[in-house]
Amino acid sequence: MTTHSGPARHPAVVPDVDALVSRYVTPGTHLHLAMTMARPNAMVYALARQFAGRGAFTVSTSATHTAMHALTMSGAVDHLITCFLGDTYPTPRPNPLYRDLARGEPFTCELWSLLSFTQRLTAGATGLPYGVTASLVGSDLERGLAAGGRGPLPGGDGGTADGTPKFVRMADPHGTDRTFGLVEPLRPDLTLLHGACADRRGNIVLVPPAGEGAWAAYAARRGVLASVERIVPDAFVDAHPERVVIPGQRVVALCEAPLGAHPQSLRGLSTGEATQDITGYRDDYAFLTELVESLATEDGAKEWYREWVEEPGSHAAYLRKLGPARRAELTLDARPLSPRAPVTPPRDPAPPFTARPPRAAATPRPRPEPRTPVSRQERTVILGARAIVQRVTEDGYDTLLAGIGVSHLAAWLAAARLREQGVRVPVCAELGFYGMDPEPGDVFLFSQLHATRSQQLAGITEILGGMVAGNRRCLGVLAAGEVDSRGDINTSLLADGRWLTGSGGANDIATSTDCLVLSTASPRKFVERVAYVTSPGARVREVVSHFGRFRRDGGAGSPFRLATWLPPGYDGPATPQEAVAQLTRWPAPTSGCVPEPEVTQAEVAWLRSLDPQGFYR
Questions:
Q1: Residues 237, 243, 249, CA angle at the centre, nearest 5°?
Q2: Per-residue buried b or exposed e for 439-451, using 16+ beta carbons within 10 Å of the residue's own CB
Q3: CA separation (Å) from 503 to 83, 184, 433, 459?
Q4: Cβ–Cβ under 8 Å, residues 539 and 511
């Protein structure tokens, strides 16, 4: 029998993030960086300062981007467990830091999909010997994890497998042909997270979208290190117990860190009492753009690291460097910037599509000239939106899951077109957005401005689990680095060993629901066989290019044919046959191909109202 004595402890309250990590983190620790919309970036910078070159950490985090690049550059990470390595703004793209990941540089890496990663945390949090997932089966992710998961990646020589399978494929005990996987629980030593506020007892308020939610806090063997925007009186939490997501019993120590998620965002907390409100802030797009540009070269990366990590020396100095004007500009209103347009059934059963007028964005941005030529990416988005509209109206899908990139723009545009026809189809995003109504002028999928305009704010499990894997009427919309004639998708690793970005939630979507895939066509993207199967293509219904739509007439494994044709312009092939031959490596027939209607000015205007800066041109 185990006995316990003594009063319940309260977490330590320390002065700042540097004191927090230096007192409670030791080299060799397994640290988990919690994946919510407000990531613990101030603590990540502190880890880089305090443990540069000597951390030898195992780090688990579902996405490796933004401030995590600083921890990579510090040399403090020995092994990484993740789902994505790259950049997400202004567009999803590889980051040079991870180019040689297949060779074990800058660390060994264990790769998962977003839902299976979260299911591992759930298993760890609830004391289960395994988690269960329907993701990963049939992909190169499965093959790597079944071999031990510590490396090497296909085509490389980095790392040494630890011999313990992280994923074991299982047959359905009821005798169906469906297979699933048992996954090893994820149990870090410490979970680091950033919250909106906490009391001195350690009760932490998180504001949705929740991402992975509280699972990592419960899974951590030693507990949680937390930074918060503000430490509030106990009475505040006692009056709002429904807002507490992490109980104080799980918290080892905490500190205040205003703007602790910068350059990412935090949704504010309105209490009805102005003195107790927690002010939210938007993603700092200027900072994120500067970061991506700086890390494009080795010298630029060193200079950025010196300027923003080493020289400030503390979070307080980091905030002073940002300056009050910049901080004020990032302030997020608790309400939508502009009201939702009322949705009423159209009088005309087949009204012409008209562009929704742009509404006030957070920062006014110049709009492109209306006669600017339509780019290949824009044509891909528009044809993708048309494909989505047709699939929804003909096949009865009731939900769209938007992946990041051209795919989420196509989903947004399709939802707008359907809305004008009196059909409401909610658009979801993997971190917890449901029923998004995007703010014109903000093209970033995970913007807090879109959260403010959503019907529900939930988490990864609710969206990728409940709304995708558990919903037979969801249509996934994905982008691809490579896509082959079987529909297999690669967003991970090229044949020459260069790293792309990884799965994120794409594998979870492709293995559980019907999908459309969007990509501008070239022989480099439309390949005979992908170099790495990030997402199996059995459930891909269509692949949309800038010159037409490839469609399967049969089920999984049936061949694609070019079903529609939109001449790609004066500089492109003149016939469907020439386009397939010159712009793909697919053996796709073109018989029965029908003309695609010309791109309209209304379609282009609507798309550019979302993307006035032309990131997707």
A1: 65
A2: bbbbbbbbbbbbb
A3: 6, 19, 19, 18
A4: yes
Q: What is the 3-state secondary structure (H, E, C) of 456-469?
A: EECCHHHHHHHHHH
Angle (deg, nearest 10), helices 601-610 and 406-420: 120
Whether the predicted model's global pTM rises above the 0.90 cut: yes
Task: Based on DSSP, count helices (H) and strands (E) in the chain, helices before strands.
Answer: 18, 29
Distance of CA 396 to the CA centre of its chain: 27
Backbone angles phi, psi at 155, to 5 degrees: 85, 0
Please say whether the beta carbons of 599 and 592 come within 8 A. no
Amino acid identity for residue 505 in this structure: G
User: Which residue's structure tokens are 């042909």?
Assistant: 177
CB 381 within 8 A of CB 599: no
- 318 membership: H or E segment, kind and range: helix 315-322
Whether the Cβ atoms of residue 240 and residue 248 lie closer than 8 Å to each other:
no
Distance in angstroms (rounded) separating the CA atoms of residues 173 and 235? 52
Closest by Cα among 64, 55, 221, 79 to 162: 79
Count of residues in the chain = 617
**Rounded Cα distance, 485 and 543, in Å:** 10
Backbone angles phi, psi at 139, to 5 degrees: -110, 170
Residues 6+ apart with CB under 8 A from 53: 74, 75, 76
Residue 497 and residue 105: Cα distance in Å, rounded? 12
Mean pLDDT across the stretch 309-329? 97
How far is 132 from 229, CA to CA, in rounded Å?
36
| Cα–Cα distance measured from residue 91 to residue 296, given in angstroms and rounded to the nearest whole number | 14
The single-letter code of the amino acid at 208 is P
DSSP secondary structure string for all residues of 31-97: EEE--SSS--HHHHHHHHHHHTTT--EEEE-S-B-TTHHHHHHHT-EEEEEESBBSB-SSS-B--GG
The long-range contacts involving 555-562, CB below 8 angstroms and separated by at least 24 positions, are 557/486, 559/485, 559/587, 559/588, 559/589, 560/485, 560/487, 560/586, 560/588, 561/588, 561/589, 561/590, 561/591, 561/592, 561/593, 562/588, 562/589, 562/590, 562/593
Confidence of residue 5 (pLDDT cuts 50, 70, 90): very low
Q: Are 42 and 50 in contact (CB under 8 A)?
A: no
Could you report the per-residue pLDDT of 113-165, keeping only the tens digit for each? 999 999 999 999 999 999 999 999 999 999 999 887 655 455 333 333 456 78
Q: Is 74:126 a contact under the CB 8 Å cutoff?
A: no
Q: Are 499 and 102 in contact (CB under 8 A)?
A: yes
* Separation CA 509–CA 478 (nearest Å): 8
Look at residue 520 in the predicted model and tell me its pLDDT: 97
- Give the burial class of 103: count Cβ atoms within 10 A of its Cβ; 0-12 exposed, 13-18 middle, 19 or more buried: middle
